[in-house]
Amino acid sequence: MPTTAEHEIIVPLTVGKVESGAAIVLTDDLHMLEIPSSLLPNATVGTVLKIRITSASDLQLAREADFLALQTAILRNFGGRPDEGKIEGCLTMMDNTHTTVTVGWPQWEVLRGTSQATLKSIDAYVDGRKLPVMATDETSLRLTGLTPGTKYNVILIFRTTAGRFTTTNLSVATASYEDFSCLKVHPDGLSDDAMAALQQLGVQLVDFQGDKTAVVVTGRTRDELASGVDDGQLMRMADEFNVPVVTKEWVQACKEAGRMQSVSQFYCQ
């Protein structure tokens, strides 16, 4: 039978079975317990043990203190800032094209000083209509499928591990078809006259930048592009990012019309 002292119980146990991972022991009133065999290295079947059970008050108090400290840290880092509603002046328009607008924000402002928080997702609303989110990273978002030469009101909702935050309204606008300044064009093998015509349009002449490049204007045929000095790399990248490759006649057509022309009639053949 168990014997007791103040804050202590001594229980006699009999080993009934020893396996590789556990030992089965029996109390005097035939209750069965399973104990890791590593705690009973010299026990065999029939061994009688005495187990002393005491209250570890000091260990209990230490663990309670650790748990309360953890709760306090969680509250301070994640729960101390409820949904703060509107974030004033957070968004800026970083870039625009005829059909897209890129908006950006300072990461620290979105996370509101909670250094442990991370951004989980973003909802984008344009004139009250929710748009699919594409090409997003931690500090910018590109809105696509917009109408050329149109003004829009943009609101973003940031969902973070520290709560949900909503921006105030940002007024943005896409470029009109008469505005070439937003157009990122990669020139390839063009004559001096063709380069001068591009510059007169006011486009941005850039190295190939993937889907950030609007169009590639080339003075070469498609066969020449496929077997050129770059071993067809430019054509492969343009195909990968769905960037149209057009002839220099497209530049002349835009210049004569005074507005951007469809590329469909000027694809490089």
UniProtKB/TrEMBL annotation:
Pfam families: CHS5_N, fn3_2. One of its GO terms (molecular function) is protein dimerization activity. It comes from Paramicrosporidium saccamoebae. This is Chitin biosynthesis protein. It comes from the Eukaryota. GO terms for cellular component: exomer complex; trans-Golgi network. PANTHER family: CHITIN BIOSYNTHESIS PROTEIN CHS5. Residues 198-268 form the BRCT domain. Signal peptide: none annotated. GO terms for biological process: conjugation with cellular fusion; Golgi to plasma membrane transport.
